[in-house]
Amino acid sequence: MSSINNTAEREAVPRTAAHEEADYEQAVKNLLAEAWSDWPNWAGFTGLREERGPFQCAVHGNIPAWAAGTLFRTGPGAWQIDDTPSGTLKLDHWFDGLAHTHRFDIVTTGDAGGVTVLYSSRHQSQAYVKHIQEHGSGDIVTFAQRRDPCVGIFGKMMSSYEPAAVNNNLSDDIKNISVAVYADIPGLTSTTGNTAEPQKSSGHRGMPETVWLTSDNSKMRRIDPETLEEIGTVNQTTFHPDLKGLISATHPQRCPRTGDFFNFNLDVGSNAVYRVFRVSAATGNTEILATINRLDVMPAYIHSLFLTEHFVILCVPSTHFLMGGRKIMMERNILDAIAPFDKSQHCRWFVIDRVNGNGIIAEFESGAGVFFHSVNSFEETTGTGGVDVFCDVVEYPNQDILRSLYYDVLINRNHEGSKFWSNERKGRGSLIRLVRYKLQVPSLDSTASTAPTKQLKIQRAEEQLVIRNPHAGELPSINPNFNTRRHRYMYSLCNRGLSTLFDGIVKTDTNTREVLIWGNCPGHTPGEPIFVARPGSVDEDDGCLLSLVLDGHSKSSYLLCLDAKTMTELGRAEIGFAVGLGFHGLHSRAKDATQPSEVA
């Protein structure tokens, strides 16, 4: 593994707005030229082991003591299941990899601000794997597992008339849930179907009362924060009986002031219905804030939503489900049920009052596109009594990104990566742009609608800011103290065309368009950067970033700590073996990690 004493590797590369177009075009050229062919991602997808530990990692450099706490990470691990009725099942898509959750305990030692880092992990899909080994995968809905060609048209037709038989009749344990991690979701603390209580941790570790894993469905899985063992699985009817749909956002929103929890529930079928809801942190009660049940609003794949001080914003992108969503039941997966991309199918935006119960107060549209992740949203009052709502989102020009994440493409198996990236349209379609949309919301006097079928005048969402890859990237994060407030900095994973996934961590200044890119170690694939603010800090970028990085050359991973101001490496904790390339994480600060230490 490379030493952090190498100054060239530690320092970030600065770029300005003047470099943006050239850097984007160079990324496209690199993809076409297969510059990614020497970037080894294979170790992040295969031979991944469970380590219940915990064991102590080797720490190099200086991870600040004020970053002490617990970092949870989740995502796909193994992608092969042996001993099924038809032999070895190879999962097709990264989003369907088998659930594997990881925990890092960053513990202060009391020695001049030093820390110890402990690592442990656990598989969360044993029941899922056992079911497939015994019965096959035909009765399970996935994100993109290709259908068995032996299933004829009659079987597909029957499944479209029997949606309740798909997944719903299976035990809740037979679910593969591992995209994002959330703590202490209101309304669920004591509702798990299991009486196990979380263990209490020492003050040196930040341990939530409950930890939940989420995915793109309405199921949520509770795990023990100490052992990572599964405790129970619930669906959104636990919140409210009307939330009976199978689809929801992986990324709900939490109000930073009240702790209230916001999400949507989508009930697909001939009469598809969106229900946007809030769960009160104070009472645990759930209120449906808006219901959307209209022929002009299609059921769609939606990964996240937006929240401001007064509004919830739902954006319906151009990922519409065929047959009102019944196609999901026919194909037994999400991706093949999405209609081909159509530029005429614009994104629809719904601004929903979350304070006074006025329902949908404004509707907007923007050009056709696809997105996974909202970044942040905030609002500013105007001189006319209205409100300008700003929504930052990482978006794509079409659906190509969804197909770039098949394992065959990621690891270039059977030259599928070469086939995909040699198509320039697909390359451009898989590179993000960061967009800040402005939604001009008029005064509430005459706009509110709680009726599910009433349509307001549709306005145009204005693009206020556009920054393209690699000056912005995927899996974005900000200083969490700026949630629902105007922020300046975003941290994300960029792709300069050197990898089939990500090849750098980029800090984007949305005011000046200047960026800093960490990524001078070829073959080192970073994971989602998680911002940890320095206690008592004033500056928005005063903190550190934690990212789980795979060194593909040595086939081992390390927890990287970067100075969030300069994007230079502060320290790392070496694990000694490869950890799966996952999705999202959560840092829970230790109760006594309040004294700032010097960032050096």
Biggest β-sheet description: 6 strands, antiparallel
Question: pLDDT average, as an integer?
Answer: 90
Calculate Rg over CA atoms: 23 Å
Number of helices: 9
**What is the number of strand segments?**
36
Q: Choose one word for the global shape.
A: globular
As a percent range, the share of strand residues is: 25-35%
Secondary-structure-based class equals mainly beta
What is the rounded distance between the termini?
Answer: 22 Å
Uncertain regions: pLDDT < 50 for 5+ in a row? Answer: 1-5, 151-168, 191-204, 595-600
Q: What is the number of independent domains?
A: 1
Brief descriptors of the model:
mainly beta, five-stranded antiparallel sheet, disordered C terminus, carotenoid dioxygenase activity
Structure description:
The protein has one domain (7-282, 290-589). 51% of the residues are buried. It contains 9 helices and 36 strands. It is globular, with a radius of gyration of 23 Å. The chain is mainly beta and 600 residues long. Residues 191-201 have a biased composition (Polar residues). It holds the Pfam family RPE65. Fe cation binds at residues 251, 303, 373, 584.
In terms of topology, how is this protein built?
Layout lengths: L6 H4 L2 E3 L4 H13 L22 E2 L1 E4 L7 E8 L3 E5 L2 E4 L8 E10 L6 E9 L2 H10 L17 H8 L19 E4 L27 E4 L4 E5 L6 E6 L11 E2 L4 E2 L6 E7 L5 E7 L6 E7 L13 E2 L3 E6 L9 H6 L15 E7 L6 E7 L3 E12 L5 E10 L3 H5 L2 H4 L5 H6 L2 H6 L3 E9 L16 E3 L1 E7 L5 E4 L11 E6 L9 E6 L5 E4 L5 E2 L4 E4 L9 E9 L4 E8 L5 E6 L9 E6 L11
Parallel strand pairs: 21-25
Antiparallel strand pairs: 1-30, 2-8, 3-35, 4-7, 4-36, 5-6, 7-8, 9-10, 10-11, 11-12, 13-15, 14-15, 15-16, 16-17, 18-19, 19-20, 20-21, 22-23, 23-24, 24-26, 27-28, 28-29, 29-30, 31-33, 32-33, 33-34, 34-35
Keywords: Iron, Metal-binding, Oxidoreductase
GO molecular function: carotenoid dioxygenase activity; metal ion binding
GO biological process, one term: carotene catabolic process
